[in-house]
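README: folding subset

This subset contains proteins for which both the sequence and a predicted structure token string are available. Records are stored as plain text. Below is the entry for Serine/threonine-protein phosphatase 2A activator (195 residues), shown exactly as it appears on disk.
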Amino acid sequence: MGDVNSLSYKIINDESIIRFTKSSIYNDIIEFITNLNKSVVGVEMKPLEDFKLCNENDMINNDNFLFLSKNVYNIFQLIKNMNKCIDSCPPINQSSRFGNRGFQHFCDAYYKEVDEYLPHALSESNIPNISEHTYQISYYLKNSIGNKKRIDYGTGHELNFLLFLFCLNKINFFIPSDYKHLVLVLYRQYVFIYI
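--- output ---
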């Protein structure tokens, strides 16, 4: 898998922001966010540990339980593995004004986890040629955990996670009935890591 640093930024100044907001991809992202929002209106939030993989004998989205599609479940497991990376990379005992260098070890561990598990999760979807997209999709997931060099985390990193889900959706990895699970399970599990 390639180096995420070889991708280049296209939104770098006011002019490129204006160009982006007039693009079809911008409209697609806004539509995706709107659809995610609509999918959870009036839907009860359940504890994350209650969600499970749906099998052929389960009735999807019955009144008592939310079952996850295989694709959502595989990404859920990948995000949950972030906790294992956190546990294996404790903070370093140091005096520092800015961040803890242990975060850099966490980033390395998580990048490795993504490189190992994401191709497996994508290949199980049986979408033709999906492996061609793994590198670019992994870029957004890797950058959703924070900046390894600056040792920081903010809303731009949360946007990277949303774009990770968006990219998967663009290649039909998710279907509209998955949308509520993207919000109530995947995004929620991602945010809980930082709480």
